[in-house]
Structure to design on (351 residues):
């Protein structure tokens, strides 16, 4: 009996030891997690402090003084009154010719649709100048796309081996290093300071920005389809087209639409320095004639243009998402673009 009792006690002790070992290991893991969390909190706090110090140093370097801003802020608020009410007298050639001011100029022009066409043909009025701005952004995106695609593909290490791919990456980086506002000045001897020069500047800027996005997208694709295409004896260009670009086609279209949104904003900025479009009208109203009411009308038109382009672009990207068209052909996807309910996000549950 005593032997059985001793063996039972030994078994109990062994079981207790076995239970204690997991508890000990769990405590060690929990302790390590707590230590890691403390380290992250300390590093985060140090990062915030460092960021604050660097920001303070930068503000001091450029001469920013909060007291000066606070002192001049009431005057700034008072000056905003000069922008009200917005004067749309130059909405179209018709409203300008008949001196129709305020929001009534919009109404009188819209009920006479031919006045919009007249402004478009004359490239005059807020309507005509807005279309010029949109055309600069759109055509600049289209003209820059082929080179952006070429440089973006050749800049990928999957296509061009290191370090030769950096020839194309470096070219795109150089283009991005020069703002579009500088490119339009560079093109003055070639195209003058106007819409054509702005178009060339936007196209050049597109090559750098869009091409870099293409390169980064290609670096994230799967190797499986590329290897599968290569195993069939496909050539290098065929592997690129059918193994790589087929995976990112939709993403490339989405990025192009995003760059188009940016290019429209850039076109407005280029107009401010004299490159045409509604930006030129803004510059003339503010700095040339001090007609702040008309300038405010132009600002409202800029907001309308940007929001419209962004809304259309976002809906196009939504219709082209792979998750929504995994089992559909591109013809079917294109047909969906004509579905008004889907544009409004109302047709997602339809079978």
């Amino acid at each position: 009996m005593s032997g059985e009792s001793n063996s039972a006690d030994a078994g109990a002790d062994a079981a207790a030891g076995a239970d204690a070992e997991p508890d000990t290991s769990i405590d060690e893991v929990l302790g390590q997690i707590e230590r890691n969390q403390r380290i992250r909190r300390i590093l985060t706090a140090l990062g915030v402090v460092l960021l604050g110090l660097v920001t303070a140093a930068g503000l001091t370097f450029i001469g920013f003084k909060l007291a000066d801003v606070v002192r001049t802020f009431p005057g700034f608020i008072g000056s905003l009154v000069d922008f009200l009410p917005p004067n749309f007298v130059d909405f179209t050639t018709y409203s300008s010719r008949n001196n129709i001011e305020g929001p009534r100029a919009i109404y009188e022009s819209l009920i006479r649709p031919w006045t919009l066409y007249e402004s478009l043909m004359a490239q005059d009025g807020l309507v005509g100048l807005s279309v010029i701005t949109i055309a600069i952004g759109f055509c600049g995106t289209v003209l820059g796309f082929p080179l952006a695609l070429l440089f973006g593909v050749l800049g990928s290490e999957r296509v061009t081996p290191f370090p030769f791919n950096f020839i194309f990456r470096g070219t795109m980086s150089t283009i991005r290093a020069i703002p579009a506002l500088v490119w339009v000045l560079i093109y003055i001897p070639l195209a003058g300071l106007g819409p054509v020069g702005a178009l060339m500047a936007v196209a050049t800027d597109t090559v750098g920005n869009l091409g870099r996005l293409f390169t980064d997208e290609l670096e994230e694709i799967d190797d499986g389809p590329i290897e599968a295409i290569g195993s069939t004896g496909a050539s290098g260009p065929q592997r690129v087209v059918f193994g790589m670009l087929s995976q990112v086609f939709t993403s490339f279209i989405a990025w192009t639409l995003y760059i188009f949104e940016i290019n429209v904003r850039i076109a407005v900025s280029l107009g401010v320095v004299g490159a045409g479009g509604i930006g030129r009208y803004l510059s003339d109203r503010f700095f040339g004639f001090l007609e702040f009411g008309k300038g405010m009308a132009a600002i409202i038109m800029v907001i309308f243009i940007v929001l419209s382009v962004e809304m259309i672009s976002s809906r196009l990207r939504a219709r082209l998402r792979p998750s929504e068209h995994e089992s559909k052909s591109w013809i079917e996807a294109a047909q969906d673009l004509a579905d008004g309910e889907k544009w409004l996000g109302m047709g997602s549950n339809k079978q």
